[in-house]
Structures are given as C-alpha cells and as structure tokens.
Amino acid sequence: MKRQDVQPIYKRAQKHRLFWRWSLVFFVVLIVVGGSYGIYRYQRNQLLKQYPIKGVSLSQTDGYIDFEQLKTDGYKFVYLRASQGSVYTDDSFSNNFQRSQGSQLPIGVYHVFSFSSSPNAQFKNFTRQVGYDTGSLPIAISVQPYDKYNEDTLNYKRVSKDLKLFISKLKNYYKRPVLIWTRRSMISKLGMRINSRQQLWTSDGKLGHPNSDAMFIFVDSNADVKMDNQTVFLNESVFNGNAHQWHNYLNRNLSQ
After folding, report:
1. Secondary structure class of 49 (helix, strand, coil)
2. Spatial CA neighbour of 252 closest among 180, 176, 200
3. What per-residue confidence (pLDDT) applies to 228?
4. Residue whose C-alpha is closest to residue 134's, from 102, 97, 160
5. Do 214 and 145 fall into the same domain?
6. pLDDT one-digit tens code per residue, 10-53
7. Within this chain, do residues 82 and 181 fall inside the same structural domain, yes or no?
8. Which one is predicted more confidently, 40 or 254?
C-alpha cells in the first residue's frame, strides 16, 4: 500500500479515538453532575421533612394556577403578589384571590417595596389594589435589592425611614401584623425590629440551621409542581415550625 493511502486511514483512526475519548469524558462528567444533583435533591428533601408546612408565592408570571391542585400536592398556604411600588399592580391578583377562596387554603398578600417611590404613594397603590382582600395571613412586604439599588449602594437611613412609615400605615389601616420578606443582612442594616407584630420571612435562611427569629423561610425559586399534567416552577417557602405550631399561628392571626 502506498504511503499516501496509509495517511488517511491513520487520520480516521486518530479521529475515531479522539471521538471516543471525549465521549467518555462527557459521559463521566454527566454522571458526576447528575450524581451531585441527585445527592443535592435527596439532602434537600430530607431537610424539607423537618418543615411539614410548605407554601408558594404567586404572581401573574406564573400563569393560571389550580389552587385545589396545590392543596392536593401538599401545599398549606399561598401568598399572592398584589402590587409593586407606587404604580404597578399584578394583573392576576383579583382572579387569583377569588379562585383561592374555594380551596380553604390560608391566603396572604404581598407588596414589592420600591426604593424609588414614596411610602405614601406605595400605600395608596396597595390599598387601591387590595381593598380588604388581604386573606388570613399577615400582609407581607418584599424588600429585595434590585437593579442599581444593591446592598452596597442603598441609602439605608432613607430606605429605613420610608419602609417604617409604609409599615406603620399598613398596621394602622388593616390592624394586622406584617411580614418583612428580605435578607437577614437587610434587616440589620435597616434597623428593623422583629416581633409578633412585625415578623420575618427570610429570603436567605438555610434549612436545618437555626432560624429562630424567622416565621417563614424562602426555599426555592424553581420548585417543580405538577399542574394539569404538566410541570410548573413556583417560588416555594416553608413555615418555620411544626403542624401544631402552624395551627396556633393561624388561630392567632385569625383572632387579630
């Protein structure tokens, strides 16, 4: 066989070996990643067993949600986004709230706090959207850094003053406790007190770790939930306590 005939065969064999070598590497990586994710999911599910009361928070981006199906799937409470800042309102709020009533699930509502709008304007926006459809759970205020308003650039003195005024208006108007949904570092920097009338919903709490001051713990922004033969991904949180404590918590809130 001539030399020029041997070279193409050699090159094909070399490419063949490289193909199988990289295929093996890819397969090993796939096994490692898949195994790691499987271990993570297993450990997470084991930790979640310590928190039997789980719930979801919904907004218009989640589409149509069957509340009866949520109940069947073991969810014990739902929070609905009502408004954001001084202008924005959630298009699905009214429909979600009305449909949720037939499920007998404890319902709460939440407002996304804006760092660029006045507390008075935000209060008017919230009350105009919600009226008295506040459900049975404490009213929640989501206080999360966004865009240019990150933890390093926030004017904490001004934000603290605005947030406290907004909360004061909510308490006086609705005669209800509130939940501050935020990071622990934000609570500290804003100088917010946590008590029975002003509770904490931590967005960065770790399952299985001490969270004694938190009433709720945010768990997952992509919890997979079966809904009408398809999977939807929802924001999932848990109540920081057992079933007996949850029952007492609901009774306290209903009596206020």
Report:
1. coil
2. 176
3. 80
4. 97
5. yes
6. 666 666 677 777 767 676 666 655 555 456 556 666 777 889 99
7. yes
8. 254
